[in-house]
Amino acid sequence: MKKCNRRVELGRRQFLRGSAVAAVGGAAAAVVPAGAAQAAPAPAQVDYPGKNLGNVSALKVNEPVDINYPDADSPGILLKLGQAVEGGVGPDRDIVAYSVLCPHKGWQLAYDKSDKSLNCSGHFSRFDCESGGQQIWGHATQNLPQFTLRVDNKGDIYAEGASDLIFGRPSNVL
Amino acid sequence: MAYKRQIDRLPIPPKDATVHNVTCHYCIVGCGYKAYTWPRNEQGTSKDNAFGIDLGEQQPADGTWVAPSMYNVVRQNGKDVHLVVAPDHGCVVNSGLGSIRGARMAENRPSYVTGTQQQRLGDPLVWRNGVWQPTSWDDALDLVARVTARVVTQGSEDDLVVSMFDHGGSAGGYENTWATGKLYFESMKVKNCRIHNRPAYNSEVHSTRDMGVDELNYAYKDYEATDTIFMIGANSLETQTNLFLNHMVPGMRNGAKFIAVDPRRTVTVNAAEQVAGKANVLHLPINEGTDMALFNALFTYIVDKGWGDKNFIAKSTFQNGEAQALDDGHPAGLGSLKYALDTCRTSLADAAKICGVSKGDIAKAAEWIAKPKSDGSRRKCVTAYEKGIIWGNDNYRTIGALVNIALATGNIGREGSGVCRLGGHQEGYYRPSDAHVGRPAEYIDQLLIRGGGKVHHVWACDHHKTTLNASAFKRVHKRRSDMVKEAIDAAAGGSREQLVDAIVSAVNAGGLFVVDMDIIHSQIGQNAHVILPACEASEMNLTSMNGERRLRLSERYMDPHGNSKPDCLIAAGIAQNMERVLRDMGKGAYADQFKGYNWKSEEDAFMDGYHKGNPDVTYDRLRAMGNNGVQEPVVGFKNGKLVGTERLYTDGRFTRHGRKDGKALFCAAKWRGWQAPGKAREKANHKFWINNVRANIFWQNQFLDQKNDFIQDRFPYPFIEMNAKDMADLGIGAGDLIEIANENGATQGMAYPTDTAKRGQVAMVFGSPAGSQGNVVNPGVNELVLPNYKHAWGNIRKIANATPQSKAVSFKSKEYKAT
Q1: Does the distance separating the beta carbons of B816 and A120 come in below 8 Å?
Q2: CB pair distance less than 8 Å for B5 and A26
Q3: B 196-235 residues inside an 8 A Cβ radius of A
Q4: Average per-residue pLDDT in chain A?
């Protein structure tokens, strides 16, 4: 955990120092090798804490587990869908994780088991957990931030990044 | 797999960022935003920033947040600067809400740094040597003026056909409509003209105006104080998003009931049920095109029950029979309540049969609109309508029949009332008189198809995407403009005089010389010989009013892209070149008509036009009124503020028809089935009704989203909502590409299985660059040349399996359900 904290701190300092290039260079920065990122300034998409979200064996199909990532103020869900999806991890390639703060106005989304969607009671936006968080209908100007997951050989699931900016913050890692 | 932006942090606007007022220029609602700009090498900190909040903390729901779509790097005064365009919490229209359109204003600005909107036109283009060659303004305008001047002097101004937007927002606004109006209606008297979304130069709502009722007469806050929201042919959650969320939803939370008349169940109906509860929402899914019969039954029932507002009717409406007879310019007679009711009288049973809904539900709607409360007080009702009837069957009588209900119940000019169209763009019309155009106006598309007109000036209209009978129009327009292209190609290397001779010979032989003013290279622009690049809101100051007549100055915060210019200055350039060329031709008196365009800026055009008619209103005063602006009409300037008008007709005097007695007229709206030619036969001969609909994701800005990854990822092809059983019958799967065809033409889109879609009815998104719904709409219009876009019938077949793009799309229901 010490290492993780250090990485958070590193991200914070770089962010405060000024990281204008990250905004438009985000996509490019994402492919910078991790080793290079350690030395380079403001590597967007790279400086994330790793967080153990639980073990594959504990997940039940269509039973979302509440998580927080990258920090305690950013709620999300970890979900085993029951069938493989693009971007899914785990032995069945069906485990995904999303932020549940609606990227429209930050209302907390509710999971609808009947069609595996996340829904906003404030303004009726809907996101499809089986299509990478694609907004089915709604007001958000991006799809749902999806957390980057890794499963180790013991079946432990780690969150290690996010695909999009999380509502209510200028940087995912504050 | 959904599109990921892969952006996880943004620069922070510093405390000293420059702030401009921005009115979202896409839809009629006109939400307030703030544009923050600051130097490229600076940013604020989490503690010290333009928002005055601690950005180091997670912000709460509804808090301030800059989404990546609200950010860009744009050019301002020649320098690249950071830009954030974020919703304004202080604007009463949206109270900090952003829409999926407005909250993408920043990413849809042209940027040399981030590469957004590279489709924008930056230079005048002239067709030369088989391609469009960039050139100077002087060169392009000279050619436009020489050809136009030659044609209108050899023949007449009737040989000049003009398609020109008349709206506010976008690249519209008072500055630009005034300039084009001055050019074509004052310097010239062009009568062969049309508006951006319809094939003639006419009102979309003649009847309400003839009845004395301007179509935008309420304030948005009336929705919050009403007892019933009566919505017809509209889908406000998608197309007036923040009017619905910020005003109608609070109204329903305050106890208002909600009636929706729409053959299709929309997300608006669903959301109303979520907010008000199903018991307080009545959806009347009538047979397509039967609205008038429903309105007539409601009118009859309400009056017969004695629920009319007798005092209002006596004081504010015409009493003596017929005031305006049915004639060529009036597709229905107008007069007293009794006069109209004698014609409109329809029983609940007859309406139920025509409309396909129950008598009980019609009676229930009448009760929700007009049955006095238990304490005897009157119910308040806001009536709101849009394209479902404007572009529907028998426009004049249908809208008249609806306004009858509002007049009979006194629901105009009072708090919690109003009978209003909801609108598409903002409004921004200020022009010299158009009386010479005539009524009915010329059906311009048909004129062009018949071979009429020789020069076509097109101002930000793309007929190819948004006209009816589009297949025929496109074929003919291309053929005629190709004749001129060939003539230009053949004259290569010659003098300017020889080029003009060649073009004029070609148009005299049936060709068409096309000049296109637009911000992008549009589909009709493919036929153009000269393309003049315009800029839009954000690159120029623009004044417009929204659906409650709220006038704002949306400020310029960046430079026009490339060498583009505001339309008003392009019009001035055309006028100045016309004057010069005509004088060279020895036509001094005619040349003198083109004086008076010595404008240096859009503000000069505003002062020359709108300000002269409204002397209290200036840019400085509007700027000071901020994003809340002032509701028109402006009636004074006191204590440093412009004084406006919250709602119209509070004195009970109706004036829109120009009658001196101030009395509103009722409309004798006689039901006659399908009014437009060919509709009944087309319906009888085809399997599917092809409804055309809007989607919030690109409503009003789809042309800017043709390369936007977020949008194209969601809808890579125009969606066609379709019942799953109909799809199964035809062997169509989700995402398959399907063709809709009838005698008018064919179009295509992507099948979107929709559980609420009725069998035999599909709903195709309108105005898509990738599939024009207008291809299958017949030329049928009403007596005043209002198009009936909404009623087309066709057969459907599968043309291709789902592509990788459409396979990746979510096909789940668009309807939110509480969990």
Answers
A1: yes
A2: yes
A3: none
A4: 81
Residue B41 near chain A (CB below 8 Å) = yes
Q: Catalytic residue at A139? A: no
A123 among known catalytic residues: yes
Is A34 a residue whose pLDDT tops 70?
Answer: no
With an 8 Å Cβ cutoff, is A123 touching chain B?
Answer: yes
> CA B582 to CA B591: how far, in whole Å?
5
Q: What distances in angstroms separate CA B579 from CA B346, B457, B496, B573, one per listed residue?
A: 59, 17, 18, 10
Residue B711 near chain A (CB below 8 Å): no
The per-residue pLDDT of chain B, averaged, comes to 97
Residues 124-153 on A with a CB inside 8 Å of B are 124-126, 128, 130-144, 146
CB-based contact A132 B4, cutoff 8 Å: yes
Give the tens place of pLDDT for each residue, A46-57: 789 999 999 999
Q: Which is nearest to B510 in space by CA: B479, B546, B552, B474?
A: B479
Model's pTM, two decimal places? Answer: 0.95
State the Cα–Cα distance between residues B305 and B301, nearest whole angstrom: 6
Residue A24 in this model has a pLDDT that exceeds 50? no
pLDDT of residue A32: 34
CB-nearest to A139 from B99, B274, B713 is B99
A125 contacts on B by Cβ (under 8 Å): 816
CA torsion angle B464 B470 B475 B481 (round to 10) = -40
Quote the minimal CA–CA distance from B690 to chain A in Å: 22
| Mean pLDDT of successive 10-residue stretches along chain B, which has 819 residues | 92 98 97 98 96 97 98 98 98 98 98 96 97 98 98 98 94 95 98 96 98 98 98 98 98 98 98 98 98 98 98 98 97 98 98 98 98 97 98 98 98 98 97 97 97 98 90 97 98 97 98 98 97 97 98 98 98 98 98 98 98 98 98 98 98 97 98 97 98 93 92 96 98 98 97 97 91 92 97 98 96 94
Distance from first CA to last CA of chain B, Å, rounded?
A: 25
Helix count (H) and strand count (E) of chain B? 27, 30
